[in-house]
Amino acid sequence: METEWPDNDKFHEECGVVAVYGHKEAANLAYLGLYALQHRGQESAGITSADHGQMYREVGMGLVADIFSTKRIKRLPGSMALAHNRYSTAGESKIMNAQPCLINYAKGSLALAHNGNLVNANTIREALVEEGAIFQSTNDSEVIVHLIAHSHCETFVERVVEALLAVNGAYSLALMTDTEIVAARDPFGFRPLCLGKLDGAYIVASESCVMDLVEAEFIREIEPGEVLLINKDGLKSFFPFRKMEVKRCIFEHIYFARPDSFLFGEHVYSVRKRMGVALARQAPVDADIVVPVPDSGNISGLGYSEESGIPYEMGLIRNHYVGRTFIEPKSQIRHFGVKVKLNAVKEIIAGKRVIIIDDSIVRGTTSRKIVKMLREAGAKEVHVRISSPPTLFPCFYGIDTPDREQLIASKHTLEETRRYVTADTLEYLDIDNMMSIMNGEKSTYCAACFDGNYAVPVDGKGPQPIQLNLFGSETKEV
Question: Rounded to whole angstroms, what are the CA distances from 356 to 127, 312, 338, 342?
Fold first, then answer.
């Protein structure tokens, strides 16, 4: 029996965005950028390019390496390109939902690549359909494209701003016509987006690791509420939205971003290691070895080990080559799903008191299987330490989380959860301890999945940014 990979006990990455302006190998650079951002989405990938007034699009389901060949890249000419990796937080897993979106409308062609989630997308979609709009996909990003097409503003950047004024939620996105690129980040700054430069060309990407791969200069992070216009006249920066209290997604540092990226003013590696240090101080335990759950617990596990003085061992080995599906054996194998991905090193585990470090517990099913796997490998004791607080609430801003009823910490006490995962002890990193190690005030991070404090109400009726003078005092040359 062929079965989808049972990876539903982890939060899923959102999406990755790359845009290139002014480079003769734009599509190839965008393709490499998608490689760097593969961790942000493994469902589909796509690239759109622009060349002499024409736009070209190549998309497919699966991993970047499986979709793009030299032949397909050659079908993407031009010095401009827009690329996207997708994991769906809104819309079905079908090729029609692969991005970049590409449409032709009265004012030309338009492509969009979006990372985030729009909480009022359904309301806007229904209104547009009543006005005669025809949607080609079920993802929330397409509403932005339709809003731009409906706009009567004179310039492309003004049409983009007008469209973004109508949406509510999280977005870091890039849009491309046949002559220019616009990049934007929502006023709350939920999702990351950064700017780089290579041989005179501009690159926009979800994470700085893209710049490292293509050897581009990392210029800076795009600011919350900022809109960038890139065209033949260079780069201009606008701040057309009312300034909001910044709410950067704390889970980018906990799990989503690559450890070698720089975002929200911090090096991800350093933040994760500090989380492990804070966890060791808060929840020490007398044990023989610290074992991370790879790869999400690797760096915080190192911090825990160094702070506690307990040796760090890779007692769990991960198979990095598991595809989207696998064929199950007819005979029963205990913990089969986890064993496909992880295996315990008995030589390291046997007879030891083990501390396992992971970034989060969602449903608890995977943690339970890992603890049992370690006991079967001969562990004398198994102590679970989680480098984030208990996940109590779902996310509506671009992370695929289960309903609250399926989050084990929202319906069960710490002791009940410990008994379920069959650990000797269980501790989470306290939210105040976690926030104390971050760069900036606690209020500048969104931790709604832990505390339920949603910056944008999910009914879309929350604070709406208002438009200021787009080309007035809030405009600056970069």
Answer: 50, 10, 15, 13
The alpha carbon dihedral of 460, 461, 463, 467 has a sign of positive
Q: For the whole model, what pTM was predicted? A: 0.90
Q: Give me the pLDDT at residue 334, please.
A: 60
What residues are annotated to the active site? 15
Distance CA 361, CA 391 (A): 7
Q: Are 16 and 82 in contact (CB under 8 A)?
A: no
Q: What is the pLDDT of residue 1?
A: 43
* Closest C-alpha among 233, 196, 198 to residue 23: 198
- 132 falls in which pLDDT band (50, 70, 90)? low
Q: Mind listing the domains of the chain with CATH numbers?
A: 2-247+461-477 (3.60.20.10), 267-442 (3.40.50.2020)
Beta-carbon contacts of residue 194 (< 8 Å; ≥ 6 apart)? 204, 205, 206, 207, 208, 211, 218, 219, 220, 221, 222, 262, 263
How is residue 204 written in tokens?
């926009």
Q: In DSSP terms, which residues pair with 47 in a beta bridge?
A: 58, 83
SS3 419: helix
Regarding beta strands 381-386 and 425-428, do their DSSP bridges make them parallel or antiparallel, or are they unpaired? parallel
Mean pLDDT, residues 78-94 taken together: 77
- Residue 363 is encoded by which pair of tokens? 């449903």
Q: Name 472's Cβ contacts closer than 8 Å, sequence gap at least 6.
A: none
DSSP state of 127: H
Phi, psi at residue 68, to the nearest 5°? -100, 130
- Are 136 and 102 a contacting pair, CB within 8 Å? no
CA distance 300 to 284: 14
Tell me which amino acid residue 57 is: R
Which of 114, 100, 227 shows the shortest CA–CA distance to 169? 114
Closest CA to 118 of 462, 450, 458: 458
**CA–CA dist 281, 276 (Å, integer):** 9
Is residue 82 within 8 A of residue 113, CB to CB? The reply is: yes
Please tell me the distance from the alpha carbon of residue 315 to that of residue 342, in angstroms, as a whole number. 10
**Neighbouring C-beta atoms of residue 332, cutoff 10 Å:** 7
pLDDT-based confidence at 209, cuts 50/70/90? very high
Q: Phi/psi zone of residue 189: left (φ > 0), alpha (ψ -120 to 50 degrees), beta?
A: left
Give the SS3 label for residue 316.
strand
Instruction: Taking residues 380-405, report their average pLDDT.
Output: 89
pLDDT tens string 396-444: 887 767 678 889 999 999 999 999 999 999 999 999 999 999 876 778 9
